[in-house]
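Review this today:
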Amino acid sequence: MKKASDTPSAQNYVEPLQRAVAICGGQKPLGIKVGKSQAQVSLWLNRDKKAPANMVLKIEAATGVPRHELRPDIYPPDEYKAVAQILQQKKAA
């Protein structure tokens, strides 16, 4: 059974998205980089309180903010670390 503490809070979703906005220099530049309007980015921050699932990889590519930080409910950090280790091993081989 899941506990409330197992569910990421809205703050856990918003902070990485705010960081992505800051890295790009604002909502409009982030929107341009991911093919969305400034208004849409504003809705993610203020209404949805998270990045949409279908935009996470684009935001990660545009900003370097990891997918497991943007949406830990979809990309659990432990699984992400395991995948990252496998990719590192393949690069080293």
The chain has a mean pLDDT of 87.
